[in-house]
Amino acid sequence: YLAGISAGDGEGCFGGGYSGGNYSQVDTYNVATATTSTNSTSLSEARRYLSGISAGDGTGVFAGGKASGFVTTTDHYDIDNDTNDSSGDGISFSFQALGGISDGDGFGVFAGGANGSYNFLCCRYDITNGTETHDGDNLDSTMGAYGVTGIGVI
Q1: Which of 60, 91, 115, 142 is the most buried (most CB within 10 A)?
Q2: What are the pLDDT digits (tens) for 93-145?
Q3: Using an 8 Å Cβ cutoff, are 100 and 145 in contact?
Q4: pTM of the full predicted structure?
Q5: Are 53 and 61 in contact (CB under 8 A)?
């Protein structure tokens, strides 16, 4: 129910989730030392079923999910500085259980998910500038895509 983003240097963050209620907490995990720390900066909205993409420069975006309803919220998280900026554009569709992939050069794609029906919508997101660069389009996929996952090049 939670999402992850990577700094590209052996550290990453997990944010959101659910255990009897939605979480806004963000934890950093260091792969080299196998240690976890709870960050002082949380997501702007407690939610589950969110997705994450990483820029490759220590920053990433947590997007979508389910709070009290489906949301378009984006949180631009700086892993190295433990800061969050939610002032960028939200994604163009309110879905939960999206998948996310990144190119490691500042761009990523959110796709799939559900908001009462199963769809395969996608949007290209400029992580660096906090803007959606391609509005959600139905890709005319023949599969219902819920709980999609993805990987990125870092």
Answers
A1: 60
A2: 777 788 888 888 888 888 777 777 666 667 778 888 888 776 555 544 445 55
A3: no
A4: 0.85
A5: yes
